[in-house]
Design goal:
By secondary structure, the protein is an alpha+beta fold. The longest helix is centred in the C-terminal third of the chain and has 21 residues, at about 210-230. The chain has helices at about 10-20, 85-100, 125-135, 195-205, 210-230, and strands at about 35-45, 50-60, 65-75, 110, 135-140, 150, 160-165, 170-175, 185-190.
């Protein structure tokens, strides 16, 4: 899996690319429902061996059964810089989605393990991926990054605004997916409104704190990375 030839190589180039792309984000429902086929994408790294593995797992929203899955393994595309993680992850994620498409499947919606509009420059991984692919995307993160929120009520489905402390803008929501369990942080990616993103997250988190899309993709990318490292290790 080669890194795209025109992929940003410096922090300045990556920042310029975010500024170029962020006006293209459509942060509202585009008239189509989120659909039945929902993909989760996630990545795992081994910096020592310069390897990243991405997984795309396609689920049936109604049953949460796996419809198809695909992986991609390659070199890490960008150094670790807070706020620029998409440049590290997206080449592998795009390849995993391409592998899914080669199997005959295009997701109606993609759930990313990270942020969309809840990003300092309003272009987190989910929004970036959506703009590049045209797919409907949303982000579900485990931590609130640099944004403020009140504690949602203890019941499943309770939520509170995730706000930018500098502007007061609502950039996402803290959402309680399990009673009495700490919330997840939902934000719009592309071609979806925040209410729809929250409803989709709750549908996918029927049994656990994290959406089943994220749980499945996390497990698969970790296995793909372990297999790739094993294949590189010479026999004794």
């Amino acid at each position: 899996m080669p890194i795209p030839a025109d992929w940003p190589a410096t922090e300045a180039q990556a920042l310029a690319e975010q500024e170029r792309l962020r006006p293209l984000v459509r942060a509202l429902d585009d008239g189509d429902p989120p659909g039945r086929l929902i993909a989760g994408v996630d990545v795992a790294y081994d910096d020592e061996h310069d390897l990243v593995a991405a997984a795309a797992v396609l689920l049936d929203r109604d049953t949460l059964d796996v419809v198809e899955e695909a992986t991609a393994v390659g070199r890490i595309a960008f150094p670790y810089v807070p706020g620029l993680l998409a440049f590290r992850e997206l080449p592998a994620v795009l390849d995993a989605l391409a592998a899914l498409a080669a199997l005959g499947h295009t997701p109606d919606t993609v759930v990313c393990d990270g942020y969309g509009l809840a990003h300092p420059r309003r272009l987190g991984l989910a929004s970036h991926l959506g703009v590049l692919t045209g797919l409907r995307t949303l982000g579900v993160a485990k931590t609130p990054f640099t944004f403020d929120h009140g504690d949602p009520g203890p019941e499943r489905g309770a939520s509170s605004p995730l706000t930018d402390p500098a502007t007061g803008e609502e950039v996402g929501r803290a959402v309680r997916t399990r009673p009495g369990v700490k919330p997840v942080y939902v934000s719009v990616g592309h071609r979806i409104g925040l209410d729809t993103a929250v409803r989709t997250t709750l549908d996918l988190a029927a049994r656990y704190r994290l959406p089943e899309t994220t749980r499945r993709a996390d497990s698969l990318c970790r296995r793909a990375l372990a297999d790739a490292l094993h294949a590189r290790t010479p026999p004794n």
